[in-house]
Structures are given as C-alpha cells and as structure tokens.
## 1
Amino acid sequence: MRLKGKIAFITGASAGIGAATAMAFAQEGARLLLAARRAGKLAQTASRAVDRGAAAVHSISLDVRSRFAVQRAIDELPPEWAEIDILVNNAGLSRGMDKLYTGRIEDWEEMIDTNVKGLLYVARAVVPGMVVRGRGHVVTLGSMAGEMVYPNGAVYCASKAAARTINDGLREDLLGTPVRVTSIDPGLVETEFSQIRFHGDVEKAAKVYKGIKPLTGEDIADAILWAVTRPAHVNIARVSLTSIHQANTLLVHRES
Ligand code: NAP
C-alpha cells in the first residue's frame, strides 16, 4: 500500500495508459481523481479501481482543451479532494498520418490544443497547490516521438517534443521546492491510440502493432508507479521505454 492516503489526479483515465495507471495506483491504496471527456468509460475505470482497492474515487468529466473548465474543475474540488499529491498529466492523442504539407489543419489543432495547451493548463492549475503544501509529484506523458520525428508524424512528434521541453522547464522552475517532475516516454503502446489516430479505422490501427509485441498500458503504469514510489529526495527525470521489437521511432523489428 505504497500510495495509501495519497491523492492522485490522472487525466485521460477513461482508456489506455491512464486507466491502467488508475488500476496500478488503486492496488497501492491511493485516492483517485479521474478525468476524461467520456463519462461512461470513466465510470467503468472508477468502478474497476474500487474493486482493485482504491481508497476512494472521484470522477470529473473534463476536456483539457478548455482552460476555464480545467481551472474550474480544480477550484471546485471538494475540500477532501483538493490536496493533490500526484498529477499524471496523461490526456493526449494523435490524429492522422499525413505529410506535413498535406495534413489536415483540424488534426494539428486538436493535437496541439490537447497535448501542449491542455498539458499546460492542467499543470498551471495543479502545481501551485503542490508548492504551497510543500509536496507533490508531476508525471508528464511524453513519448519517444518527442525525441525523434518519424515521417508523416511531424505535428504529433512536435507536440511531444514540446511536452518534453515543458516537463524539463517545470523541473527547473520547481528547483528549491520538494515537488518532483518526471517524464515517461514510451515507444509503441497498444491502446486506443492508433484507432483514434486513424479516426476509428480498426484495421489500419491493428497494422501498427502487426508482427511485434508492443508495450501495454500496464507496462507504462508500472514505470509510472516505480517513478512515484522512489524516496522523496530521488527525482526520476525521464523514463524512456520500448518493446523489445523497437529500437527508436524509425526502427521496428516485425516478425513475419
Ligand atoms: P488512449 O487509449 O487513446 O487514451 C487517451 C486518453 O486521453 C483517453 O482517456 C482520452 O479520454 C483522453 N483524452 C484525449 N483527449 C482529451 C481531452 N481533450 N480532454 C480530456 N481527456 C482527453 O491513448 P494512450 O495510449 O493511453 O495515450 C495516453 C498518453 O500517452 C497520450 O498523451 C499519448 O500521447 C501518450 N503516448 C502513447 C503512446 C502509444 O503508443 N499509445 C506512446 C507514447 C506516448 P476521452 O476521449 O474520454 O476524453
């Protein structure tokens, strides 16, 4: 029960990595504040988390692209939920795989509004309280895509390069406080991610993972749990992880 009594706020908790992190934290006895747009899927995560041992769960329907909704959600938390110990700033998505010069501008805006501006809005709303309370840990979901761009993915990769820089800047700006800042940077993880990227085209999404054993949401949750359970003076700056079938964003070994 390493997270007993801790309040963890997880964005993007209705699916994939966020939902898996909710389960991993639940098993450690955390109190979970879960946020996403799809209330039905969020309720499913919440009920599974209670079964797994979460001390309590509070769900918030939230679109991180709205700065006002994000600030309001934090300002209006019931007092027993206000003192967030761990923020997992995870909500994010990719849309489309197109050459930069033919890409859909709506896709670019959705990615930048969610992965960059949403990330900033959530951090801006939550971190001041951590500084005042003298405790806290911010975990940002970056990506291997933030380290190395791949063809037809420039805008998603740029959004994750921005997340990396924001995460590093936050760590610098929090120096002298006990608040820790960690970036978790995975390679290919099989979640709803590719289905969302290809606007619901399940076959196209399945091809992304064909012939490889991809990482799972649980693998990433395991890395997040490890980072947040180190001794208070240890700050894990970055965890970069891939499946054994992936070396970087450009090199993937597929079994035929
Ligand atoms: P996923 O299964 O599609 O889950 C994405 C989550 O983000 C969902 O819960 C979704 O919830 C939420 N979300 C998206 N837009 C949102 C918005 N505007 N407001 C609030 N919540 C929003 O994808 P995933 O793989 O778990 O991705 C989680 C994070 O990991 C993302 O930041 C992604 O970039 C990063 N990542 C993924 C991979 C990968 O290969 N899967 C690799 C590296 C990094 P609702 O739709 O219900 O709002």
## 2
Amino acid sequence: MARKIIIDTDPGQDDAVAILLALASPAELEVLGIVAVAGNVGLEHNATNARKVVELAGRPDIPVYAGCSRPMRRHLVTAEHVHGPTGLDGPDLPEPSIALQPQHGVDYIIDTIMAAEPGTITLCTLGPLTNIGMALVKQPAIAERIAEIVMMGGAYFEVGNITPAAEFNIYVDPEAADVVMRSGVPITILPLDVTHQIQSTPERLAAIRGLGNKSGKAVYDMLTFSETFDLAKYGWSGAPLHDPTVIAYLLQPELFEGRHCNVVIETASELTIGMTVVDYWHVTGRVRNATYLRNGNADGFFKLLTERLARLP
Ligand code: BDR
Ligand code: CA
C-alpha cells in the first residue's frame, strides 16, 4: 500500500523537483496534500508555485494549502538570490488554474493527522519548519500520531550555506525547528552533508532534458536557473540538489546512510543561530532523537529521478 504523505514546502526549484518525484511515484507514495510555507520567497509566491507544479505533473486534484507567512519569532529571511524573484524562475509555466484551498495549512495538517489512523501519515518537509512547529504547538496530540518527519535541513560536517554555521531551512525558523526536534516524533534528516554529494552535473541534466516530456524540460529549465548561484559559489561541476533527496529516501532508503543520534538546534547564539548540533559520535548522553543521514548515492539518486520523471506528462 502506498505511504501517505503531506509535503510542506517553499517551492523553490528543488522543492518543485521533489514534488514531481513524489507525484511520479503513486505506487509507493500517496500525496494527500501540499502545504506552502514562507521561505525561499514569500508565502504567496510559494503557494502559487506549488499549484503550478501539481498542474505540470497533471495532478490538479492534489489540494494545495497556504500555511504561515513568517517564522515564529523572527523576520523572514528569503533566498531570491538563488531562486529568482518568483521563487521558481527558469521554466515558463502557466499561471495555475486550480484554487488554493481555503483552510489554513496548519489546521489542514492538524485535522488530517487527527482524523487518520495513528502512525499512518508521514510529513515531508522541504522548507523552514514553521508550519510543523505551529501545528505541534496548537495541537500537541499530533506528535504521537505522526508516523515520521522526513526533512531536508541542517548541516554538520559540511557546515552552513546561509551562514558559516547554519543551513537555510533551519536558519529561517530555528525556534520552529527546535519545537520539531523536541517533539518526540521519529525524524529523519537529509542535511547538506548528503545533498552536497547529489550534484546535478551537465550530463545528468542533459539526460533529464532528453526525456522529451514537458516535465523533463521544466526540470532542466528550473535547475539550470537555480544552479548558477551555487556553481559560482562552490566551483563544482554540478550544483547540489537538496529537497528531492527527501522523496528519494522514502522510495529507496538504501541510497542513503547515516546514524541515529541526538540533534539539537542552536536558538540563542548570534554567531551560530540555526546550527544543527549533531552528536554523531555519541559524546553526550542526550537522547537520540533523529536519524541523521550523512552520505547519499548520487548515481543511484539520478537514475531514480530520471526514470520517475519519464512517467510524467
Ligand atoms: C534548502 O534551502 C532552500 O533554498 C532549498 O529549497 C532547500 O530546501 C537548502 O538549504
Ligand atoms: Ca526548499
């Protein structure tokens, strides 16, 4: 039976590819809904982009909700310098024809989890953790009903991408990330340590472009746009591809390796705010609250992604 997932996201070119990968995998994943959060750009753009992506995938039946428009305690930090002013610059996608759902995204998350059998819904988070943190605060009873949270966020061995210490998704709302990490929900983390190994080289992008379908072309156009910033920054032959690793992990966990350990979010220090402090070597007695993945198989990942994208319009 397909695993039921809710995708919480700030699309974002890499978020868009993650959504496409999930929608291309209906035998394994049932996408119940998509919830937008403020992050890469403002909430309104992110909610529009999510609707563009489900329509690109030929799935206008997937409900899209808007969640929180700002982090719990801080001013919103955005990343137009990577994703462009709309958050999804690159492809020429039509304005969405489906409407945004009227319910607030946080209430949708709470109601859906409370109405489902406990342990049957997995939350996939591809952006700042504001919606999930707010849902856990508003209805703490969801914590023991969520099957798992699989998140793209954090960094330890590779250190930060928005500050020297912090990864963007955690940095934008460290208080929300702190609530999530302390929730007791089983958590799996796909950090920069993994995603920096998953590089969209010209050959891999050409294979996706070569699929000849609308989705392959859109993914090519998205990633060739968003990689410009990272290629200049890192000097690698391909830019890291972050958010689709969450979906790839659900589909083929054997592509990744890591360990179960303690992860705590820094919320106080001005210098290292948003840092994910990972007790990878178990040097403390802190409770092991997350599976922290450290390595990913890039060839296996791109084989999976390319095969699945071929199934879309
Ligand atoms: C994360 O930040 C965003 O810009 C990407 O979409 C990804 O979720 C990587 O740090
Ligand atoms: Ca994202």
